Amino acid sequence: MVGLLVGLKYRSSFDLEISIEEIKQLALACAITVSETVIQEASPNKVTYIGSGKLNEIAAYANAYDVVIFNEELTPLQMRNITDLIDVPVLDRTDLILRIFESRAATKEAKLQVRMARLNYELPRLAGAHSEIYSQQGGSGFRGAGEQQLELERRRIRKTLASVRRQLKEVKKDRQTQRKRRSTMKCIALVGYTNSGKSSLLNLFTSKKVESKDMLFATLQTATRKVMIKEREALMIDTVGFISQLPHFLIEAFKSTLEEVTQADLIVFVIDSSSDYIQTQINVTTQVLKELGVGETPILYVYNKCDLPTSEFLVPKDPHVFISVKDHLHLDDLEEAMTRILYQDEERLHLLIPYEEGGLYQRLRQETTLIKERFAAEGIHLLIEAPAYYREQLKEYLIS
Fold first, then answer.
1. Alpha-carbon distance 282 to 298, whole Å?
2. 325: annotated binding-site residue?
3. 223 C-beta neighbours (distance < 10 Å), count
4. Residue 241, annotated ligand binder?
5. Is residue 197 part of an annotated ligand binding site?
6. Is 199 marked within a binding site?
7. 138 known member of a binding site
8. Helices (H), 105-144
9. Of 305, 341, 336, 299, residue with least CA distance to 323
10. More confident residue, 75 or 246
């Protein structure tokens, strides 16, 4: 498919450049090639988004394209007025993102989340989508057939939304149960802008691979894997990537999945160090983390793709490491940094637990990080990683 892209220049040109490049990539992910871009220097028109003159000009030759794409989310009124003039399909940025999510959602949860986002997008647009209904309305004081049909559509969507929310609530409850069943292994959450290399990084630490492609939104559902970090077991979670102008209701829909981030012991913030738009990408991800309520969790800034020329806008945030997932560069530095943050308040203890202290043995296996254990005639030798206060509690079992 060939598309015409329409945008407005009313912010800084830097923001527009990022936005235009991203929406072209989003279009490609929907098998649409943008062959022409029309930019108007003006603030958004409340009625038609772009000026009416420019819209009429576009409408005159829009039939040469399969689709017309608008760079921002259109209001219901704008969409209705634009589609009244343009005969080919019209998409806005949000619709494009939703189409990608709908095509990539694989798990039950991801499908439910995308369904909820789509319904929230469609609900306020019903009147515009069914504008012909209004012509069927009855006289003053009466509910005509069209008005009744519109209300029935609204009720149907609200009913479906309620059902989807209930199902997501059940999935969330199941995940919380699974979380409680996990051992006391440390949990690392990978976050970052879409296509920054999170899934590729996770694949370096696990034999059970997750999908990793050079495209926007390759990952939609979280993937949790058991990994080894400097001979210690930990859990590593891959999450959906973020993007500028990500619709708020889409973040809301994926909040249940992204809650994994709020439960992590460490957030590894993966950043494309070669991107010219690096600061915008950092700001977008930081804002989403803020919306999720991530506050006190330690963050390690991991600047990926250091094999490529570094962005001139790069000012590293601490603590940080530079790596290349593609060329396997400086991965030892990454492991050292993760270990230092994850276990900064812990120390290694060598204990001898008498066999009659089976309850203590089981508690330590659940509450601490087990490094090694050996069953001997005199008792159970345990080598554990535990918070410093355990030393005083376990001093009678300590072996120097």
1. 16
2. yes
3. 20
4. yes
5. yes
6. yes
7. no
8. 108-122, 126-129, 131-134
9. 305
10. 75
